[in-house]
């Protein structure tokens, strides 16, 4: 289906609705499933993708406890589902108080590794002051969001899994991300220009969502000036990841994906209902309510083969399951913006072999790819260690600096790059200020990674 005609809506507001709310009293935020802010107004389906339906100011806090010295704006906006149907999405936007007035303020969409179904893991909830979201990865990634703000960029942090936490769904995360950027640019009081350069960044589950945005943006949002996308360890093949992680330390992650996908693909739910034991069905219902870290720690070493009534591989080979695995695999389209792909060779969660295959697919389609294939790091370590390199790469894209016309590939580990430690020192300063609740001034981290 061609969604390329989803043009910008210059009106940033939805007539007849309470459009904006000031910062609410300092009470504990309500979970998304119970918060009326997340419910779109009647008739929103007729608005164009990216139309702002409602907005409010919210207080952010590190780990929900340490208030920050800035106010964020949350936007409810019209977006699109995997099947092209109207949906409402939410993004949390922070605009720097200090800007370069000589050019449009760059906009970066940062995709957190939500990796869960539970609403308490959504960034729009987990980043707020008073949020009870122990085990939500977004609360830790707030430190990198702060680093992007220190660069002088506006940051959009979308709930890219949608209102129901459909982790692993194809295409839809990309629509939510791009419409979140549209909404931020459409919201007049944020002061973001329609022609502002746009960058995308995410790691792991956030890298997967970012990859979908990079793959669909050329058709879905051609008017956005997406100048670069950083795909940090994207889960390129969830089918392979399921087989590899099942029964491992991280077996809770594939179980969470299965729980989410049963809501997206009725054919997969039919397989689960037919073959899962009562214990298996109960486990999937329980895991939907857990945060990411809780699920991982609770289900260490779990073998889903013991929760079905037939050999697991036999079930995985059924046409219904194979069709789902094929649909959720990256590489169905070639990214139009340049991409930086960061992947650890010794990654225990995302296989470097899957990323190598994705790279080949992108390059054969003519994508402009920079591939950092780190020889020393592993999954959790590489994200912060590669942050200085990532921010420098995005800064160069925002500045319009040229890239090589051919795929570039590096193996030199970030752990052996002196500039990494200069950048990490600055990241440590930013993190200390966030943890202490002090103001983070504009001082680009990327300048330390030359």
Automatic annotation (TrEMBL):
Family annotation (Gene3D superfamilies): 1.10.260.130, alpha/beta hydrolase
Entries under SUPFAM superfamilies matching the protein: alpha/beta-Hydrolases
Region (Disordered): 1-33
Origin: domain of life: Bacteria
Protein name: Lipase
Native organism: Mycobacterium hippophais
Taxon lineage: Bacteria, Bacillati, Actinomycetota, Actinomycetes, Mycobacteriales
